[in-house]
Amino acid sequence: MLGGFSKADNANDAQVEAAKDVAVAKLGVPANTVSVVGVEKQVVAGTNYKLKLKVDGGSGAKFYEAKVWAKLPAHGGAMELTSLDEISAAQAGVSGGAADECPGAPEVDDAAAYAVQQISSQSNSLFPYTLKKVLSAKVQKCGEGGVTHQLKLQLSHGSMPDSIYEVEVANPGGSFQLKSSQQAKAE
To answer: In this protein, which residues make up the domain named Cystatin (predicted)?
Structure first.
């Protein structure tokens, strides 16, 4: 794409490794726990690198998108981190079975809010459901750019005791669809 980011084939070249090191320094994790799962480049007054990073840790993998600007050699050639955001496994391009997602990630919060709104609209109660907490979140890549979120939600409902719902919310490309929702049985 003219002027935009384009996929880079050389994910292991020295410049990409240097850009990764800049992001790793900001993350504050050991370099050997971070792997590059995707790279895009944009030529500007220097080069912008958009890295999809996987960080393996004790509580499972987390994914990040880092944007690093490599200045032109005439301007010192230094690298500067311009953004670092946590993303879902699907946004990182990791496919396969359902992967854990960070319950606080914006995409998870949006899917949970949509599910709660749909559950409330399907209820005949005067009191809407409210989200208390996302207990767990998994994402599965499906189709061209689409994802399905499998969420376990703790909901409150008026003066009733909190209830746990297991929901599946699809996002095939910009709009959510509630695929299923059921109240979990008490443990």
So the answer is: 1-84
